[in-house]
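Minutes, project huddle
Topic: does the predicted pose make sense with D-malate bound?
PN asked that the exact inputs be recorded in the minutes so nobody has to dig through chat later. Recorded below.
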Amino acid sequence: MNDLTLLCVHGYPLDRRMWGPLSERLGRDGRLRVAAPDLRGRGSSRHPATGLHAMSLFANDLATDLPALVPGGAPFVLCGLSMGGYVAFEFLRRHGAGLRSRIKGLVLCDTKAAADDAAGRAKRKDAIEAIRRSGIGAAFEAMAPKLLSPSSKGAPAEALVRDMILSTPAETAMADLAGLALRSDAFDVLGGFDRPVLVVCGEDDAITPVADSEAMVAACPNAPFVRLFTVPDAGHMAPLERPDGVAEAIRDLVKRI
Ligand code: MLT
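Predicted holo structure (tokens), as shared on screen:
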């Protein structure tokens, strides 16, 4: 019987397919069901792209869709990768108190709690302009070399990443970038979280390096259990690149719930 859902939120500029291999591994032992929506403006989402995808907008979409994603008021563990982690923080900030009895844990993959600094915001602006000029191929050129570990070269993950990026509408990617630049720092959310937390980071993550994960772990003094799992031979897409190891770490977290 599936009695717990892992609600997985994808990163930028990706979609729900990034969770496929992890979901397949977790589905094998039956206790954990995976729900992985597409965020606004792509794939199967019923929410259209708007000019600015604030993390709070994505979080509100998730709350609106929660009855379909996790039916029957059932418990769930919130899980996000990179931008999906920022959405998870905003979801907890806005909806966490009302869902306190249902949110049983948190899995943060290749993400960080800090907001963009001025240089980071300027880079987002340049990235938006590059996509406006050249289309979604500009996002592919910018992101693809940084997403995966050198160990994943030629693996199925590489083709999937390419397909996910190139099937993201340019207007969606630009709106995501605008929202990413405006997001706030989430250390306060972590400080108030009092359920088990798993932080996952590919050891070769070039976008949110392990130091960002260590900072999140240090920011969770009220969680009864916090583990940092540094994933060998993985980059920024650890759950996609090394689904077996990440599934094992999630099963271990679930035992503590
Ligand atoms: C992501 O993977 O979602 C993005 O790299 C996040 C970011 O750029 O901050």
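Observations noted during the meeting:
- The CA atoms of residues 67 and 225 lie 28 Å apart.
- The longest helix spans residues 118-134.
No decisions taken; revisit at the next huddle.
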